[in-house]
Amino acid sequence: MAGLAHTRPLPSAARARRADVELIACAGIAGSLIVAGGLVAAVNSATPFAHGSWLAAYLVLVGGVAQLALGLGPLLLPAPNFSARLGRAQLALWNGGTAIVAIGVLTGASAVVVIGSVLVLAALGCFARSAGPAREPGHGRVLAYRLVIAVLAISVVVGIALAGSSPGS
After folding, report:
1. Of 47, 54, 61, 117, which has the highest C-beta tally within 10 A?
2. How far apart are CA 67 and CA 63, in angstroms?
3. What is the reported pLDDT for 141?
4. Which of 115, 111, 123 is nearest to 62 (CA)?
């Protein structure tokens, strides 16, 4: 990360420390959700429950892995837009939305899934903003990061469509 310091200096050391707090929180929450997904998988293998496998995969892949990639990915970009406010918005929208989607799926409430999905889409907008401008060098990395965001947004929209359908239809 020391090599990235020359690409875009942050306005002040205090602002950098505030942004670091959000990045550390992102990594901590994502790691916790990966562990939680593993625990859900273990419980589901011993005592299967409705949507247990889905919940385990969702916690690991969406709550954990995707959050790590989205939250820490801008560290690899040429001029990321880091701010404590944006970081807090990303954390709140992503984690709130993923929790609401999980509750909606587990309770069979498709309207709740839609509400959570809208929050996740808003979080994706915040993550796209954190990429900063797509300028050289590093233009391709910014485009790749935004492509990942677009693919995730499409999958959220597909999930919304599937939320209203019954299994097997």
Report:
1. 117
2. 6
3. 92
4. 123
Distance CA 116, CA 101 (A): 5
Compute the half-sphere exposure of residue 151: CA atoms within 13 Å on the CB side of its CA.
9
DSSP 167: T
How many CB atoms neighbour CB 155 within 10 A?
14
Interval 111-122 mean pLDDT: 97
Q: Flag whether pLDDT at 150 surpasses 80.
A: yes
pTM: 0.84
Per-domain boundaries in the chain: 11-163
* Residues 67-98: tens digit of each pLDDT: 999 999 998 888 888 888 999 999 999 999 99
DSSP 62: I
